[in-house]
Design goal:
By secondary structure, this protein is α/β, with parallel strands linked by helices. The protein is built from five helices and eleven strands; from the N terminus they run ββαβββββαβαββαβα. Strands 1-3-2-8-9-10-11 form a seven-stranded mixed β-sheet, sandwiched between helices. Strand 6 and strand 7 form a beta hairpin. Helix 2 packs across helix 3. The longest helix is centred in the middle third of the chain and has 22 residues. It is globular and about 40 Å long. It starts with 7 loop residues before the first strand and ends with a helix.
Length: 206
């Protein structure tokens, strides 16, 4: 096992030209959680499933929070850098194209993926953000011109209000990213329809 800085699994894909999927789980999840989704999105892709390095009541997360919906911004910034560095290390370790990585994140994982986009120019080739929130406000955002981003949202999501989704959409659009939002009538859980919509989006973009 390599001595990379984050617990993870790597599955080599059958097509080196396919995007590399970086899977980022929700609170209490792990590096295996989104493998079925990756299989659905792009079965021929190499996959990097990552486990968050923070524990909250024994539940893995990617960064600390002070309360429900209130992020520890200092920790968020540090953990975002940690994840960005890890992607560099993993690309070198596994011979992956660093500029062909697409983050696929759910809930807490979508928030850290959004934070990558808020901090590092073109660190991602694209992103599938499922039920994300705005990671932090009042920041000058880097240029993400032409970066395709899919946001999956639930109209009745109790954790992530529709206004939060719309704010994130407009912030990312202002960076030059090509943002598409898919609305389902569901709550915070992942819906089948949302996953199919993300899969179609990926097929059309990459």
């Amino acid at each position: 096992m390599s001595n990379l800085s984050m617990q993870h699994i790597f599955k080599k894909g059958s097509d080196p030209a396919a995007p590399v999927l970086v899977l980022l789980h929700g609170t209490g999840g792990n590096e295996h959680d989104l493998l079925p989704l990756a299989e659905m999105l792009s079965p021929e892709s190499s996959v990097l499933g990552i486990r968050g390095n923070v524990l909250e009541n024994e539940m893995p997360r990617f960064f600390r929070r002070l309360a429900e919906g209130v992020f520890d911004e200092e920790d968020l910034v540090a953990r975002t850098k940690e994840l960005n560095d890890f992607l560099d290390e993993a690309a070198a370790e596994y011979g992956l194209q660093r500029d062909r990585m697409i983050a696929v994140g759910y809930s807490n994982g979508a928030n850290i993926a959004a934070s990558l986009l808020f901090h590092y120019e073109h660190t991602l080739w694209g992103a599938v953000l499922l039920h994300p929130m705005v990671p932090l406000r009042g920041k000058q955002l880097p240029d993400q011109s032409g970066v395709p981003i899919f946001i999956g949202a639930g109209k009745n999501d109790p954790i992530c209000a529709a206004s939060e989704t719309e704010e994130l959409q407009s912030l990312l659009t202002e960076t030059g990213a090509e943002v598409q939002v898919y609305w389902d009538n569901k709550g915070h859980q992942l819906s089948k329809k949302e996953m199919y919509a993300a899969s179609d989006w990926l097929d059309n973009r990459f």
